[in-house]
Design a protein that fits this description.
By secondary structure, the protein is mainly alpha-helical. 69% of the residues lie in helices and 0% in strands.
Length: 93
């Protein structure tokens, strides 16, 4: 049980928390240091938050958010391909 709790805590610290902080949801990306802005480019939550802000706060159409959606689709396809490749050799019970 202890190792499962530790794995959960490490997952939160290494993926969720940095992704949440660098998404632009809590702090504006424009006010972050340049190094953090560069790193936040690869965080998918950044694009998701930008889409939500554009749709709900600004009321823009899909033509204004196509580039963020394209990044999320490409990222999703990449992660799906990695997962499929990893599970390819495993037997199903």
């Amino acid at each position: 049980m202890q190792s499962q709790v530790q794995a959960y805590q490490m997952g939160m610290l290494s993926t969720f928390l940095p992704g949440f902080l660098m998404s632009g949801f809590v702090f504006s990306i424009d006010t972050m240091p340049k190094a953090i802005q560069v790193i936040s480019v690869i965080v998918p939550a950044r694009y998701f938050v930008a889409i939500l802000k554009s749709l709900f706060l600004k009321g823009v159409g899909l033509s204004a958010i196509w580039d963020q959606m394209l990044f999320l689709v490409i990222f999703g396809a990449f992660v799906f391909r990695l997962a499929a490749r990893r599970l390819k050799g495993q037997k199903v019970a």
